[in-house]
Amino acid sequence: MLKGESFWCNDNSGGEHLYFIISDPDSDNNVLVVNITEERNRSDKSCSLDVGDHPSIRKKSVVYYRKALELNESKIATKILNKIYRNDIKLTDVILKKIQDGAKKSIFLSDNLKKYFEYFQNLDKK
Known about the structure:
alpha+beta; SH3 type barrels
């Protein structure tokens, strides 16, 4: 798995949601993962996404930083291989950077996940 990869995962309610890996792995092979939700009046608008920003976004959406996760990259890959998660199309570098910039602005991203900001770099070095 790589920064910018996306996958679908069921949450506790049984609903399936689109998730994006927005960091490189840390020393423990963990990555920062965020999901997308429909934009509503009271949504965190640190990063709004629209139809066309990613092929699976079909309505005005926002990144749900409040529910950001730290997940092990190898475990994500295993769950995709075992069809527990469903792989999707990778983000463009422009949209990945927009989501990363939103993470830095959002007041809802948990403080313990801000350590991943140092793993956002290198988009311009490809």
